[in-house]
Each structure stands twice: as C-alpha cells, then as structure tokens.
Amino acid sequence: MDTFLLVIKALHVISVISWMAGLLYLPRLFVYHCDAEPGSVQSETFKVMERRLLRAIMNPAMIGTFLFGAIMLATPGLVDWTSGWIWVKLVAVVLLTATHIKFGSWRKEFEADANTRSTKTYRLANEVPTILMVIIVVMVIVRPF
Q: Residue 39 has what DSSP assignment?
C-alpha cells in the first residue's frame, strides 16, 4: 500500500504542475490575442494554441488532479478531517476549478471573435491561479491549523 500511495502522490503532483502551467499560460495567450486583429493569421494561430492548451493539457491535467487527489482523500487515515487546513485547501481547489471554467468560457469568446475584455483584465486574471496555488501549497506543507 505504501508504494501505491507514493505513486498516487507523484501522479497527483505531476497533474497539478501540468494544470498550473496551463492556468498560468492561457491568460498570457489571451493578453497577446487581444492585440491580434480578428480573423488574422495571428488570431487564428492563437485560437489553435488556446484550444490545444485547454483540451490537450489543462482538461486532462485537471481530471488527473481530481482523480489522484480523490484517491488520497479516500485513503483512511491520510487526512485529519477535523483540521482546518484541508478545508481551506479544498475551497481553494474549488476556486481554481472555477477559474479554469471561466478561462474556458473566455477561450470560446476568442474562438468566436467576440472578446470584449482588455489586456488588463487578462493580466489581472493571470494572478488568480498564482494566489490560489500559494494558498494550497501553504495549507498542504505548513498545515497552519
């Protein structure tokens, strides 16, 4: 069981890293996409990049994160459910998931050449995954309460 759990933890960390990479990169693509003329070669290239990033990397990585995380949460004795840190972490994961979903809806708007937001919006949105990641890592490593 110990080796199995270590493999699950490793797969969870790999999935989280892949998911975070996408969550940090996609809004940067949006920043650059804002400056591209709709229908231009550059705009169409960004559409392909954004779609592939979301569908081929971010979505599978998010699913892997959930799957391997759920296995660990279901492992008896691994989590003290009376501790506050796990609940803060899970709320941050829910917010990270909501961020992923919002980024996906923004990608669809770019796909339809219907973006109405400025680069500033996407620059600010780029900070959200970072803040949530810091909260999650501190909760898991430090377990302050």
A: T
Containing structural domain, residue 81: 2-141
CA 58 to chain centre: 7
Global model pTM greater than 0.70? yes
Terminal CA-CA length for the chain:
28
CA neighbor of 20 nearest in space, from 54, 58, 56, 53: 58
Question: What is the rounded CA–CA span in Å between residue 106 and residue 117?
Answer: 9
DSSP per-residue string spanning 58-116: IHHHHHHHHHHHHHHHHSTTTS-TTSHHHHHHHHHHHHHHHHHHHHHHHHHHHHTT---
The pLDDT, as a whole number, for residue 1 is 67
- What is the C-alpha separation between 104 and 59, in angstroms, rounded? 10
Total structural domains in the chain?
1
